[in-house]
């Protein structure tokens, strides 16, 4: 349910991003459930599947453990997002790999990472406001917000970006 809800919320930005010629690209980790995901229009952007999880590994997106996941699912954010999902009729699909965490990158022209978000909880997702700020866009199309580019991730000439690991001092 959390993946579907996050995709649905991010998809709310699709019209605004399209106006600005910004692509909305999602990378899933398996074919299982994709047909229903597409049919129910949880995602309004391009969708790719990375069954080998190369992009997830290269970006340093970790897997939740069998020991950490139950506690994370009982957290306040997970309970709140589950209630929101039920309210919206999103429904859940417990098939497949529920242990892989993910994230979000906003990549500007030339491959510069403007914003990086890494999931700490299965219910986490980047706030739409933060994504718009990274793109210097306001939600209503009015005044533009400005933010400094993220140094948490870098994108080079290769086919994938990489996320810099957190240092103990930055936590």
Automatic annotation (TrEMBL):
Gene Ontology cellular-component terms listed: cytoplasm
Compartments reported by the entry: Cytoplasm
GO biological process: prostaglandin biosynthetic process
Molecular functions per Gene Ontology: prostaglandin F synthase activity
Top-level taxon of origin: Eukaryota
Xref: Pfam families: AhpC-TSA_2
Alphabetized Gene3D superfamilies for the sequence: Glutaredoxin
Region: Disordered, residue numbers: 146-171
Main location as per UniProt: cytoplasm
Transmembrane regions: none
UniProt entry keywords in alphabetical sequence: Cytoplasm, Oxidoreductase
PANTHER family associated with the record: PROSTAMIDE_PROSTAGLANDIN F SYNTHASE (PTHR28630:SF29), PTHR28630
Name used for this protein in its record: Peroxiredoxin-like 2 activated in M-CSF stimulated monocytes
The organism of origin for this protein: Daphnia sinensis
């Amino acid at each position: 349910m959390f993946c579907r809800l996050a995709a649905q919320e991010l998809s709310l930005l699709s019209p605004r991003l399209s106006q600005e010629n910004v692509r909305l690209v999602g990378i899933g980790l398996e074919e299982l459930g994709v047909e229903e995901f597409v049919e129910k229009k949880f995602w309004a952007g391009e969708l790719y599947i990375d069954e080998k999880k190369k992009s997830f590994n290269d970006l340093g997106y970790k897997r939740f453990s069998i020991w950490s996941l139950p506690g994370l699912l009982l957290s306040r954010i997970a309970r709140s997002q589950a209630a929101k999902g039920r309210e919206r009729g999103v429904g859940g699909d417990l098939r497949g790999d529920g242990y892989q965490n993910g994230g979000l990158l906003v990549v500007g022209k030339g491959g510069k990472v403007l914003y990086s978000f890494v999931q700490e909880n299965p219910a986490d997702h980047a706030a739409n406001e933060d994504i718009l700020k990274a793109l210097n866009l306001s939600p209503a199309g009015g005044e533009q917000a400005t933010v400094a580019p993220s140094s948490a991730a870098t994108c080079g000439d290769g086919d994938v970006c990489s996320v810099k690991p957190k240092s103990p001092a930055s936590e």
